[in-house]
């Protein structure tokens, strides 16, 4: 039986990946942050279904000692580093916290693996924000990085660490450059889930408006379960490499709105309030990924369409809020 260690197991991707690996008979270990508490902790809602089948450990990803003890005792075959500070408020204190956590955690995990489980395969969750202000679209593995957020910078540094440990320390370590991917388990702080949850609340009479910034912004939105399948394909491949994981298609926020409200027989224009405070700078060149490399080399491609994904998110929110009202 293979053993896998997942950091960020309580997040959207970590929880789907845990289920994906359990279905393939892995022994799944997850690292949660100190103070996360027990199974009743609210941040555990995404793994509630499989909680009894997981081996959860508490540890601080910034402490080398915690990680060394953990890796030494688990001896994982595969390790997926998904924990990251993902939500950015652009405050100066936020910047240092993001940079510190996202880079140190990656470095300390690589150090611990090199010392105690050098044959373990390591996946690092990179981001399309590494391309930031991209020179052209679509982006692929050869597109130069030009991050325009501290989060993007932290992911470029993480990726440099991956390359260093792969090329000079002999680890099977790779980066998946992930484009946005969504699901019913996305946090409501992100625009897609903010839209589906608020639209459902409007439908049920629990809200009256939806406040958003520029709805012309485009995204390459994939489905989280497809993304975790790509992560696994990368770590079970014969050779180690980095890959762009994307759908190659863009949709605007307006498309997302129309589809979401359409699922509920509502017209979004009646409820949308454009709030200039929520405006985000628009990419001059859209962030859209070219996944031909992973398609041709690892036979991975997205299975769930944009339309199916939005429908699932709306249905899930509908069931959730209807239960709340009962
Ligand atoms: P989530 O925000 O849903 O999950 C993040 C996870 O990281 C949670 O388990 C969270 O733990 C953990 N975490 C955050 N900060 C800390 C900390 N200081 N100490 C310990 N754990 C921490 O993210 P996703 O699942 O959506 O993303 C997974 C990875 O993929 C991330 O690395 C992200 O940067 C990357 N990515 C995601 C994209 C997307 O569209 N979803 C796009 C591009 C990249 P807790 O539950 O305790 O808060």
The CATH first-level class of the largest domain comes to: Alpha Beta
Broad shape: globular
Beta-strand residue percentage: 15-25%
Q: Can you count the helices?
A: 9
Notes on the protein architecture:
By secondary structure, the chain is an alpha/beta fold. It folds into two domains: 203 residues, Rossmann fold (3-Layer(aba) Sandwich), CATH 3.40.50; 92 residues, UDP-galactose 4-epimerase, domain 1 (Alpha-Beta Complex). It is built from nine helices and 13 strands. It has a seven-stranded parallel β-sheet, sandwiched between helices. A two-stranded parallel ribbon has the order 7-10. Helix 1 links the parallel strand 1 and strand 2. Helix 2 runs parallel beside helix 3. It is globular. The protein starts with a strand and ends with a helix. The mean pLDDT is 95. The protein binds NADPH dihydro-nicotinamide-adenine-dinucleotide phosphate. NADPH dihydro-nicotinamide-adenine-dinucleotide phosphate binds next to helix 1 and strand 5.
List the defining traits of the structure above.
9 helices, 326 residues, UDP-galactose 4-epimerase, domain 1, two-stranded parallel ribbon, 2 domains, alpha/beta, binds NADPH dihydro-nicotinamide-adenine-dinucleotide phosphate, seven-stranded parallel beta sheet, single chain, Rossmann fold
């Amino acid at each position: 039986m293979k053993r896998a260690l997942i950091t960020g197991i309580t997040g959207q991707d970590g929880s789907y990946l845990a289920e994906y690996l359990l279905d393939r008979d892995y022994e799944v270990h997850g690292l949660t942050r100190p103070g996360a508490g027990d199974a009743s902790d609210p941040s555990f809602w995404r793994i509630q279904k499989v909680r009894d089948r997981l081996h959860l450990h508490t540890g601080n990803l910034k402490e080398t000692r915690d990680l060394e003890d953990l890796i030494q005792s688990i001896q994982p075959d595969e390790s997926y580093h998904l924990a990251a500070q993902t939500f950015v408020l652009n405050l100066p204190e936020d910047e240092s916290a993001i940079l510190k956590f996202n880079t140190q955690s990656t470095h300390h995990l690589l150090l611990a693996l090199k010392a105690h489980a050098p044959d373990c395969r390591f996946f690092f969750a990179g981001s399309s924000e590494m391309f930031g202000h991209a020179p052209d679209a679509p982006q692929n593995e050869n597109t130069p990085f030009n991050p325009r957020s501290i989060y993007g910078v932290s992911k470029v540094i993480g990726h440099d660490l991956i390359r260093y440990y792969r090329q000079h320390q002999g680890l099977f370590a790779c980066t998946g450059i992930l484009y946005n991917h969504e699901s019913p388990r996305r946090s409501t702080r992100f625009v897609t889930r903010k839209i589906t949850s608020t639209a459902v609340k409007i439908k049920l009479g629990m809200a009256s408006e939806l406040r958003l910034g520029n709805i012309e912004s485009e995204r390459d939105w994939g489905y989280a379960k497809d993304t975790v399948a790509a992560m696994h394909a990368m770590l079970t491949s014969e050779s180690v490499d980095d890959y762009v994981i994307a759908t190659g298609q863009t949709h605007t926020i307006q498309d997302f709105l129309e589809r979401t409200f359409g699922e509920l027989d509502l017209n979004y224009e009646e409820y949308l309030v454009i709030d200039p405070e929520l405006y985000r700078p628009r990419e001059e060149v859209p962030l859209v990924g070219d996944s031909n490399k992973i398609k041709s080399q690892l036979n991975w491609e997205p299975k769930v369409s944009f339309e199916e994904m939005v429908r699932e998110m709306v249905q899930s929110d509908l069931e959730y809020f209807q239960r709340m009202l009962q």
